[in-house]
Amino acid sequence: MNRSARVIQTVVSQHAEETAFLWLLRDAAVGQPHYSLADLAKLDNRVEAHIDGLRVAGDDGWDILRKQLEDKPEPGEVFAAAVLAFESNKDDRVGFVIKFGTTSVEASRGLVSALGWLAYDRAEKVIQRLLEAETPAVRRVGIAASAVHRQNPRRALDNALAHADPSLRSRALRAVGELGLVDYLPTTRKNLTSENASCRFWAAWTLALVSGDKDAIAQLQVVAESESPYREKAVQMVTRRLEPSAAKMWQRKLSQNPKLVRLATIGAGVLGDPDAVPVLIERMRNPEFARVAGEAFTMITGVDIAYQDLDANKQEGFESGPTDNPKDEDVSMDADENLPWPQPEAIQNWWTKHQGQFSKGTRHLLGKPISPEWLYQVLREGRQRQRAAAALEIALRQRGTKLFEVRAPGFRQQKILAELDKK
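Below the sequence we write its predicted structure tokens.
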């Protein structure tokens, strides 16, 4: 291999590595409190630039991606290889990435993301192939990809909802909610008593979202009060579906359990009643809940704690996330890593001056009473978690509405919202 060829191969390898790495960044960014849609679009443009470098490299680019995926079949590598494979329309390449991308639920996230990255008219053929597969893990990717594009896979969805495989069925139940499919609610309701926890949760989540089903809401309350990995999603949905007075009573109940104070704090931000602000300020004095209480305060008031100099340094002696201690068995990441540390006294002073601007008993989001017009503005201008909240509120208010996908490529979201502005 001559020097020029080695240089080219090095450049193409860097494109492959950067695509996988940047995908990991954007995978986290879609749910982060400090990313706006503009930030996400900027990051996605960087991803697209490296993908374009791989496209230009042709077969050499594919060979590097293939080897990278064989050596490291993780979501970022699956995503990078899958985008080029699906665009190629070559059966051997498509089959290759499907094989590696369905080895685990985690790996399949990269496969679904790659299909979501493509415009639907380019992804549709592959999605149909996945939906017609015999293997449940492959069909699950097809259902997920259809849902990401907010397309109803119809007969494939019917079959998935009746399938014995719980992973496939739970993804189908979730898709019913994301697509706002009212006609599927009777089938969804049958899964409230499923033996599989994931199926029960997504059935309840979908029923609560699309119809406000009381049994589903009650079941989600049980999930929220358990150790379930879905409990935060359950709090988000239940708080929005309960009557405000009932939601407040439930939050007080959660607050009485030390293990559930964090969830009660999140719920206060979801409900958006300024009446909760004094309690939130008090929780800011506890380092365990300080940052999440600050986020709830922002969700209600719209105050950017860092921008308005209401933040503080990290509280001394407090540790969260993985530590350097080899004997520490807790390796979970800090859930509040990208949230500012609030300064309780400064925030109390701000609240004393401005509380008259807020109507207690009225639900707020980012400083304004919730209204359809304001929700769409938040969808355009808010941060990712705030945008996700607005998307849920919109779907809850319009029965049968598709849930806006705030995790889609930023450039596509911007286009969709621009088209909405013209209507």
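The radius of gyration is 23 Å.
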